[in-house]
Amino acid sequence: MAPKKGLLERLAEGPVIGDGGFVFALEKRGYVKAGPWTPEATIENPEAVRQLHREFLRAGADVMQAFTFYASDDKLANRGNDSSEKYTCRGINDAACRIAREVADEGDALVAGGLSQTPSYLSGLGKEHTQKEFKNQVDVFVENKVDFLITEYFEHVEEIEWAIEVCLKTGLPVVATMCIGPEGDLHGVSVGECAVRMAKAGAHVVGINCHFDPFVVLEALRKMKNSLEAAKLKVHLISQPLAFHTPDAHKQGFIDLPEFPFALEPRICTRWDMHRYAREAYELGVRYIGGCCGFEPYHTRAVAEELAKERRGLPKASEKHELWAAGLKMHTKPWVRARANRGYWESLKPASGRPYCPTMSAPDDWGVTAGDASLKQRKDATTDAEISELTQRQQKALNG
After folding, report:
1. Which residues, in sequence order, are bridge partners of residue 151?
2. Could you give the 3-state DSSP secondary structure of residue 220?
3. Is residue 133 helix, strand or coil?
4. Distance between alpha carbon 95 and the CA centroid of its chain, in Å?
5. What is the pTM of this model?
6. Which of 41, 176, 231, 385 is 20–30 Å from 399 (CA)?
7. What angle do the packed helices 127-143 and 89-104 form, to 10 degrees?
């Protein structure tokens, strides 16, 4: 069997489809705890993780990103996990890599090892301490022979620069994505400057993941592209947005929305939104096109279907899903059969089904970021008294 083409070779030839949002998908299925969002399911419920990988592979994903989100030792230790060896960064990440590789080899997919922002950075512990957390993860990825590395979900460009520096020492391709929108990072660095700094730090692919919907992310990526071109830096672009509409979110994205994380369903993007997203991303010049929180396999399938011509084929999951709802021609009701066309679904504005539901929300704009005392991470749970204090602070913020 010929060796698989690597990430950079694939991006030079055409679009690469990423997978979706594991923490949200597995939380909904009962395998991940909301709040910590840590991936101990790779050890506790490996079949659940394996099955989700398989569904994304079948939907057309070219990358199986190991379920290693927030799996640094400092994050795992302060979120109530079992302190035994298997629940460490090494234990969880090793299991995640093995599962991802098993499924990737069932198709032509690549395996990515991912690392995220750390409590160490938010708590102000400095570069050396933070990079040690990154290296602990990267060492496991190298031992498991992942195909490339992703530094994702970073709110501060300084920290992602530190992560890129550690990743580059492996010799593997490095993808860098920040969870920021058009306003830039949480320390006030513009989105365009963030892209330039990630590229200058050595990342081969730069872009955005999480926090914002596909179209807000593309707005920000357009600014990134312009800044990169002005700086004469040539890198590939990546987009891995939410599958939730966030036009009313501010600088910190959906985390500030009052619906986060348990009432976001009315905001879910339709598969038809994803067709539009995939086309607009491709036309912008983005070649790594995937998703983050809220992205389910059917969203990934829509991206792969929209780019079927560019990818020279449909995903296996399309066998039961005739493109543009052609299967509805077999429906019993004539008014449903009439919906078997692309124009109907592309022009539809779905209702929420909730009488008098507001169209927008007022985000919780607390304005705190790295350096604020309230963000210092700890192992014990917040007390009821502290929750009361936070509630009062929240009410004060809402009242302006």
Report:
1. 115, 176
2. helix
3. helix
4. 20
5. 0.90
6. 385
7. 40
Interval 193-202: pLDDT, tens: 999 999 999 9
The two counts, helices (H) then strands (E), for the chain are 17, 8
Nearest to 184 by CA among 216, 156, 158: 156
d(CA 251, CA 215): 15
Is pLDDT at 380 greater than 70 in this prediction? no
User: Given the DSSP bridges, would you call strands 288-289 and 205-209 parallel, antiparallel or unpaired?
Assistant: unpaired
Among 166, 154, 157, 281, which Cα is nearest to 211's? 154
8 A C-beta contact, residue 61 and residue 108: no
Q: What is the distance, to the nearest Å, from the Cα of residue 16 to the centroid of all Cα atoms in its chain?
A: 15
User: In terms of DSSP bridges, do strands 110-115 and 236-240 run parallel, antiparallel, or are they unpaired?
Assistant: unpaired
Residue 173 CA to its chain's centroid (Å): 18
- DSSP states along 188-245: S--HHHHHHHHHHHT-SEEEEESSS-HHHHHHHHHHHHHHHHHTT---EEEEE--SB-
DSSP-derived pairing of the beta strands 16-17 and 288-289: parallel
Q: What pLDDT was estimated at residue 364?
A: 75
Task: In whole angstroms, give the CA distance from residue 151 to residue 209.
Answer: 10
Measured CA to CA, the distance from residue 47 to residue 292 in angstroms comes to 21
Confidence category of residue 289, pLDDT binned at 50, 70, 90: very high
Cα separation of 51 and 41, whole Å? 12
β-pairing verdict for 63-65 and 110-115:
parallel
